[in-house]
Design a protein that fits this description.
368 residues; alpha/beta; Aspartate Aminotransferase, domain 2; Aspartate Aminotransferase, domain 1; binds pyridoxal-5'-phosphate
């Protein structure tokens, strides 16, 4: 699955957190179909979203995603816009119904934003807050006490910035679980039935920016506050197969190419095995050295976003510059954390991890 990246010497290993690398096979297929999609004489970008051709593209993408994630029949899949950030509002607007409060786990910068937005709509009960560890931990599962009267529980299974990933799914009983899976959707197998709403911006592990995917249990649709904009009501989109207005057609199409590619790789079980191996070898290289370190507790290190810092931060600029010269790009850490961050989503081939590790060892050898 390393693609034929070596045949495209101008291509680099791109460790961007998002928008992120796409599989080269997907880009090549989009390129081949750019001017004339399947004999239609037009680009997918130029098609009516209500035409037969585009409807078939949209339907296949949804069917493939349903197959990949084994999405149960009583869940709708919505292809929306507005990013994960819009879901920070759509979740409370739609899930509160007659209730007035919701439970949130605060485990990083993204859940912090979700909490701030929810406070505009309801009373937010922060059930766990890991800020005292600089967000390098997740709460103990046994420490979580949820409010049975809460409309829903929200958390962020993978915090993209610090690289913290929950090793468990919180048990919230009958209270629906709403999750921001922007940076770890499709990275490992998942029991969708544990969740009420799963949402993700596409630009990390799905496809191009501009598309936001929402997977929602049907009984949670139809309870939006009627004073809110119609575009923020899940029912508007569910009733219209995500075509109430013009959807992000091209991003939806490319996401469909990614789903097809994932199925050809062996589906999510195969990706899970590869992702585990990729992450473990990178963490091992970091842990085996005194030159690099990762601050995250070992039980919750992300498989997708791997931050690491150099013992001497004065070498950061040289590291980034030499890495880029070796074809390893976008490794600069988030401004709030510093150091480096390697985002290693599904489209990052294992050869990219190997090349990064080799470079890190060489840099350490020449600088230490
Ligand atoms: C990137 C990211 C977001 C922001 O997504 P947008 O689509 O830009 O709104 C939200 N949550 C998580 C976990 C992310 O990684």
């Amino acid at each position: 699955m390393d693609g034929n990246i070596r045949k495209h010497m101008s291509r680099v290993y791109n460790f961007s957190a998002g928008p992120a690398a796409l599989p080269i096979e997907v880009l090549q297929q989009a390129q081949a179909e750019m001017l004339d999609w399947h004999g239609s004489g037009m680009s997918v970008m130029e098609m009516s979203h209500r035409g037969k051709d585009y409807m078939s593209i949209a339907a296949k993408a949804e069917a493939d995603l349903r197959q990949l994630m084994a999405i149960p029949a009583n869940y709708k899949v919505l292809f929306l816009q507005g990013g994960a950030s819009s879901q920070f509002s759509m979740v409370p607007i739609n899930l509160l119904d007659t209730k007035k409060k919701a439970d949130y786990l605060l485990t990083g910068q993204w859940s912090k934003k979700a909490v701030a937005e929810a406070k505009r709509y309801c009373e937010v009960n922060v059930v766990a807050d890991t800020s005292s560890s600089n967000f390098t931990t997740v709460p103990d599962e046994s420490s979580l006490g949820f409010d049975a009267e809460a409309a829903y529980v929200h958390y962020t299974p993978n915090e993209t910035i610090v690289g913290v990933e929950f090793p468990y799914i919180p048990d919230t009983g009958d209270v629906p679980l709403a999750v921001d899976m922007s940076s770890n959707i499709l990275s490992r197998q998942l029991d969708v039935s544990r969740f009420g709403v799963i949402y993700a911006g596409a630009q990390k592990n799905i496809g191009p920016a501009g598309l936001t995917i929402v997977i929602i249990r049907e009984d949670l649709i139809g309870h939006a506050d009627p004073a809110m904009p119609v575009m923020f009501d899940y029912k508007t989109h569910a009733d219209n197969d995500s075509m109430y207005n013009t959807p992000p057609t091209y991003s939806w199409y490319v996401a469909g190419l990614v789903f097809d590619w994932l199925l050809k790789q062996g589906g999510i079980a195969a990706m899970e095995a590869t992702n585990k191996r990729k992450a473990e070898k990178l963490y091992k290289a970091i842990d085996d050295s005194d030159f690099y370190s990762n601050p995250v507790a070992r039980n919750c290190r992300s498989w997708m976003n791997v931050p690491f810092i150099l013992a001497n931060a004065e070498l950061d600029a040289a590291f980034l510059q030499q890495a880029a010269a070796n074809g390893l790009h976008t490794l600069k850490g988030h401004r709030s954390v510093g150091g480096m961050r390697a985002s290693i989503y599904n489209a990052m081939p294992e050869t990219g991890i190997d090349a990064l590790i080799e470079f890190m060892k060489e840099f350490e050898r020449t600088q230490a």
